[in-house]
Model the fold of this input.
Amino acid sequence: MEWQDILDMEFERISRSLEIALEGLTEEDLNWQPKPDSNSIGWLTWHLTRWQDVQVSSFLKREQLWIKDGWYEKFGRPADAGDHGSGHKPDDLAKFKSPDAVTLIGYHQAVLAQTKSYLKSLSASDLDKVIEGTPFQPPPTVGMSIVGVLSDGMQHAGQAAYVRGLRQGMGWH
Done:
């Protein structure tokens, strides 16, 4: 098995986890917050997908799918490349209104396809390339950044499933 295959499988696992966590949920369920300053399932799914889109699009030096493919319209949000949830305050969380689960998964699948295509284009030596222009010291490598996106996605997919459990109790899965 090649390293790209392993990363591919893990990004697919995030996608499958989201599909399971979102299955059968209403928009009310997707927007429910355990507390006013907590993330909703819809926000968590949107944010993890937005961050993956931001990162992979920047690696590819392409416009984000969020804007290029008009996903922002389906979410009722501005065409703002910086609108990805990082730094959101409780008021921002409360104002976020998730679209239906089909739209959330549709955007995630589009970003996943772009991610998988990007991974196939990389060589092992590409993983060691330093990404200049970030605020991080030392600057991360491409490989470190991919692992960071993967880790972030796994965490947020797990959080979405956990919030669903809070909302619906045991036995939802």
The mean pLDDT is 95. The helical segments are 3-22, 27-31, 41-60, 65-68, 71-74, 90-95, 101-121, 142-168. The CA atoms of residues 127 and 142 lie 5 Å apart. The chain has one domain: 3-168.
